Amino acid sequence: MKISVITTTYNSAKTLRDTFDSVLGQNYNNIDYIVVDGGSTDGTIDIIKEYEVLFDGRMRWISEKDKGIYDAMNKGILMSSGDVVGILNSDDFFTSGDILNTIAKFFSSSQAKGIDAIYGDIHFVKPSNLSICVRYYSSRQFRPWLMRFGYMPAHPSFYVRRNVYEKYGLYSLEYKLASDYDMMVRLFCKFHIKAHYISKDFVTMRTGGASTSSFAHRMLLTKEDSRACRKYGIYSNIVMCSIKYFTKIFEFLPNNMKESTFKSVNLWFHS
User: Fold this and answer.
1) pLDDT band at residue 213, thresholds of 50, 70 and 90?
2) Can you give the residue ranges of every domain in the chain?
3) What 3-state DSSP class applies to 14?
4) What ranges in the chain are assigned the alpha helix state H?
5) Which of 45, 118, 177, 251 is at 20 to 30 A from 199, Cα to Cα?
6) Confidence of residue 140 (pLDDT cuts 50, 70, 90)
7) How many angstroms separate the CA atoms of 5 and 59, rounded?
8) Going by C-beta distance under 8 Å and a sequence separation of 6 or more, which residues neighbour residue 164?
9) How far apart (Å, rounded) are the C-alpha atoms in residues 155 and 87?
10) In the CATH scheme, what is the code of domain 1-95?
11) Predicted confidence band at 265 (pLDDT cuts at 50, 70, 90)?
């Protein structure tokens, strides 16, 4: 079971070592690590070259201009050779050393028969202190019907069989922020892939990403999320997709309170 991990970079020198170290620190070695750089000028290329030798032939990389992060992801997918493919952004890192081993064990088990993808949890930290969790995003309660309300599994925890991309396509380049959401709606609501939730914290993310960096970015993301739903025949609108910001309150709650609250919301939506 080979796993392809794709990291896209552009002037990522400040954070890239953490990402690379977390991949090197995995206790599963059958990996195909692909780094797609967008033509960095800040020393990122020097770091890639420094780490390339440490991967003993398991890293491949390119550096060229692209049309944005989703175009870079598509390049990585097309370069990939693994049975399963996932994305690890250049300012994120694996939370523990057994993430890829956990993924490989599941996909190699009898439980994975008929399963196209897996997903889990992630948590957020402040760039100034990487050891303290400020938000915990659990995908446990995800159901495809929730996508019309702006909710999806944590994208950095999403690992999918490579043939799914071959059958159903790559990331759309018609969005600035929501191509990952478009992909999830397409896979779960149009093509009805089968996925399995793993109760594990996969990835540590720094706060301050593009989709949440300002009110204007949040509004644009919400508009694009609702547009993605309508594109695939899922009724939604900006107000409905804004509900996800209400649910973000739960990410600051203890896990036991989170579970009971989500159950109440689930019952309310289906009443």
Assistant:
1) low
2) 1-95, 126-151+164-194+208-271
3) coil
4) 16-24, 44-52, 69-79, 99-107, 162-168, 179-185, 215-231, 238-241, 243-247, 255-269
5) 177
6) very high
7) 10
8) 116, 117, 187, 193
9) 8
10) 3.90.550.10
11) very low
